[in-house]
Design brief:
- Helices cover 69% and strands 3% of the residues.
- By secondary structure, the chain is mostly helical.
- A two-stranded antiparallel ribbon has the order 1-2. The chain has a two-stranded antiparallel sheet with strand order 3-4.
- A hairpin with a 7-residue loop joins strand 3 and strand 4 (35-36).
- Helix 3 packs across helix 4.
- The longest helix has 47 residues, at 167-213.
- The radius of gyration is 23 Å and the shape is globular.
- Mean pLDDT is 90; it is low at 1-6.
């Protein structure tokens, strides 16, 4: 994105580009194992998750220290407010490892979008969101089939209480909604939020740099406004980061709850 400036000799403003989500290869270029900058960020996020929980849980104490307390608060939040609240204690604890893994994977992968030197979310390219959506989808199918395979598919495709002639219309729609559209909506909701957040942050801070260091005269003052907007949106993006992790884990749990419902 370019913005031409009428002042002679001033380089044009160059905004964010979608090509930032497709950086050149760093290792193994042209192979099935090609690794680019975003893949390295994902590896770093995965290592951070493992270290976070290993350090936080390796020496559990009855009276926890500060770091252990933070980890336990995060775990309790997912357990109480998502898993057990929707699934009950028995099923909540059964699916808790999955829900916990999804929540913290999305949270940390999202958080790399505001970490200096990384500045892009590991979930802003389709691979990770799609993988997590497939995991949620498989958990949904597994929960329903484990409970009652025949009733699960019958009630998913033929909702009870509907006149039989209407199934000609309803059944294809239920199939598309339940078994096709659902994983794609999970994927796109997460990915698009992270893409938009990254583009806006880059726009604000790139504009700040352009106004401060490129544009001459009193016009530089506009950079203070773009800088303020950049910091304000960074705070807003932190909220979105947590909210998207919560929504993804919550919807995964809701799908499992639907699969385990009595009518199935």
């Amino acid at each position: 994105m370019h913005l031409l400036v009428p002042t002679a000799g001033v380089p044009p403003f160059v905004g964010p580009d979608i090509d930032e989500f497709f950086p050149p290869a760093v290792f193994f270029e042209g192979t099935a194992f090609e690794i680019n900058r975003i893949m390295l960020i994902r590896f770093a996020a995965a290592i951070a998750i493992l270290l976070l929980f290993w350090i936080g849980t390796r020496r559990m104490r009855v009276v926890p220290g500060r770091f252990q307390s933070v980890i336990e608060m995060g775990l309790d939040f997912v357990r109480v407010n998502i898993a057990e609240d929707l699934l009950g204690k028995k099923d909540g604890r059964r699916f808790l490892p999955l829900i916990m893994a999804i929540f913290f994977t999305v949270l940390v992968m999202n958080f790399t979008g505001v970490v200096p030197l990384m500045n892009i979310a590991g979930t802003s390219v389709i691979g990770v969101p799609l993988l997590l959506a497939v995991v949620a989808y498989v958990a949904f199918i597994y929960a329903g089939c484990r409970k009652s395979p025949a009733n699960f598919f019958r009630n998913a495709l033929f909702p009870p209480g509907v006149p039989w002639p209407l199934y000609i219309l309803i059944t294809p729609l239920e199939f598309l909604s339940t078994f096709i559209v659902r994983p794609f909506t999970l994927t796109l909701r997460l990915m698009m939020n992270m893409i938009v957040g990254h583009l806006l942050l880059v726009l604000f801070f790139t504009a700040t740099q352009w106004f401060f260091f490129v544009v001459p005269g009193f016009v530089k003052a506009i950079g203070a406004g773009t800088l303020a907007f950049g910091f304000a949106f960074t705070v807003f993006e932190l909220l979105i980061i947590v909210l998207q992790a919560y929504i993804f884990a919550l919807l995964t749990t809701v799908y499992i709850q639907l699969a385990l419902a009595e009518e199935h």
